[in-house]
Amino acid sequence: MNDCLFCRIIAGEIPSTKVYEDETVFAFRDINPQAPTHILVIPKAHISGCDGVTSENSAVVAHIFEVIPQIAKAENLTGGYRVVSNCGADAGQTVPHLHFHILGGKQLALDMA
Ligand code: 5GP
Ligand code: ZN
Fold first, then answer.
1. Strand (E) positions, 3-106?
2. Mind listing the pLDDT tens digit for each residue in 44-69?
3. Active-site residue, 99 included
4. Taking every pair of C-alpha atoms in the chain, what is the biggest distance, in angstroms?
5. Rounded Cα–Cα distance for residues 17 and 58 (Å)
6. 16 lines ligand 1 (CB under 6 A)
7. CB of 100 shorter than 6 A to ligand 1
8. Rounded-to-integer distance, Cα 43 and Cα 24, Å
9. Is pTM, for the whole model, over 0.85?
10. Residue 9 dihedral angles phi and psi, to the nearest 5°
11. Residues with Cβ < 8 Å from 38, sequence gap 6 or more?
12. Which one-letter DSSP state was computed for residue 96?
C-alpha cells in the first residue's frame, strides 16, 4: 500500500508526531487540528475505513478502543473527549485508511451533522 498516506506515515516515509505505537496500532497528531488535542489512531494493517472492517480484522478495532482511553489519559483529557470515524464521501473521509479521531481539550460543539 505504498500509495496510502497513512501507510506511508506508519512506515516513517512521511514524518508525523507519534503519540503511541504498538505491534498493531499507531497514533499521531492530526496535521490540521480541529481541537486543542486532535489525535488520529490507526491500525498498522491497511483497512480502507469502517466499511473495510470484517470478522477477519476486527480484533484490531477492539484493540484500538482499548488504546484510546490510554491515550486520553496520557493527554490529560480528564474533561472528556470525542471519538469520530468518517466513512465515505458523505462523511468527509479524505484518507482511505481506517482512522479514529480523538478530539478534546475544550468543550466540543454538540452538532454531529
Ligand atoms: P478524514 O477527513 O479522512 O476523516 O481525516 C483525515 C485526517 O487526516 C484529517 O483530519 C487531516 O487533517 C489529517 N491528515 C491529512 N494528511 C495528514 C498528514 O500528512 N499528516 C497528519 N498528521 N495528518 C494528516
Ligand atoms: Zn493504508
1. 18-21, 25-29, 37-43, 81-84, 100-104
2. 999 999 999 999 999 999 999 999 99
3. yes
4. 38
5. 26
6. yes
7. no
8. 6
9. yes
10. -65, -45
11. 29, 30, 101, 102, 103
12. S
